[in-house]
Amino acid sequence: MFRTNRTPAIPRSPGGGGRPGGLRRLARLAAPLAIAAMGISLATAPVAAEEAESAAFGHYVAIGDSFVAGPLVQAQANMPLLGCMQSSVNYPKRLAEELGISELTDVSCSGAVMSHLYEAQFDDTPPQLDALRPETDLVTVGIAGNDFGFSQVLMECAKRSLTNPLGSPCADYYGDELDQRIEGLRGEVSGVYADIAERSPNATVLSVGYLQILPESGGCWPSTPISRGDVPFLDAAQTKLNAMLQEEATAQGAVFVDTFERGHDVCQGSSTRWVEGLIPEDGAPIHPNNLGMAATTDFVRSALNVPQP
To answer: Which positions are catalytic residues (predicted)?
Structure first.
């Protein structure tokens, strides 16, 4: 259901850098935020530190896949949920601690697809949307990457690069199929955010995009074996996926958190990259590392207009 009483996110370039600045209505604020409109954009007045303290959320639900769960990033939490491989330092846990949130329900799970929001992924993991309650006042969502099949696409492209590292064998193989996959996910993505709004009507809902995986061009074959001509092809596919997520989430009243800040891709050094390559040092291959989780926490906090502690 389209919810007209929610503040839309600030439109952003799907592949651009910078911190997200959109903000929909925040629940349970002690004092209203001043909102000034300029053109079609919304700019929110800064929240003073004392206001931020009073703006703490009561029940936060984190929904999503492995880019939320953080497999193999430092210590693992929720040991009974071994299949989900949640990190104890993923961004939901960092955010809950930094904002002083009294109750966090982190149901993110590695390998999750959108159907796992409605049905059990493992015997000991209920459907993710079951964590939502009428009183839930903050929800973050990171989903659809596995539905798109990014891991399988990257593996296929890596395999094809071995015989043509300077060409574009992956782009030749897929053609416009990846664009079609993204378009085909729109209805399901829209339904997810509509269902979240229905179950938790007073919640601030944030759709968290995917961190940049590959650079715009060049690449770093063979450490990340993607052919030179396929690097821009796959980078464009990821920006289109993020753009689709932004469009469908905001249409349902959620705020899109743009985490796609360039310069932190798998080809960067260990002190700079936010996503690990195929031979990881901190985290799972082609997944956020500790720095990536810290950066995502900052992006989400910025979207909530809460100063860094």
So the answer is: 66, 287
Segment 229-286, tens digit of pLDDT: 999 999 999 999 999 999 999 999 999 999 999 999 999 999 999 999 988 888 999 9
Stretch among 64-78, 84-98, 250-264 having the lowest mean pLDDT:
64-78
Task: Determine, yes or no, domain membership for 158.
Answer: yes
- Domain at 282, CATH number: 3.40.50.1110
Look at the chain and report how many structural domains it folds into: 1
Max distance between CA atoms of the chain, in angstroms, equals 62
Catalytic residue among 110, 227, 287, 302: 287
Q: Does 116 qualify as catalytic in the annotation? A: no
Q: Given 59, 66, 110, 264, which residue is catalytic?
A: 66
Q: Is 260 part of any domain?
A: yes
Question: Would you say residue 122 lies in a domain?
Answer: yes
At 37, give phi and psi (nearest 5°).
-95, 135
Give per-residue pLDDT as tens, 44-57: 334 333 434 444 79
HEC string of the chain equals CCCCCCCCCCCCCCCCCCCCCCCCCCCCCCCCCCEEEECCEEEECCCCHHHHHHCCCCEEEEEECHHHHCCCCCCECCCCCCCCCCECCCHHHHHHHHHCCCEEEECCCCCCCHHHHCCCCECCECCHHHHCCCCCCEEEEECCHHHHCHHHHHHHHHHHHCCCCCCCHHHHHHCCHHHHHHHHCHHHHHHHHHHHHHHCCCCEEEEECCCCCCCCCCCECCCECCCHHHHHHHHHHHHHHHHHHHHHHHHCCCEEECCCCCCCCCCCCCCCCCECCCCCCCCCCCCECHHHHHHHHHHHHHHCCCCCC
Domain limits for position 226: 35-303
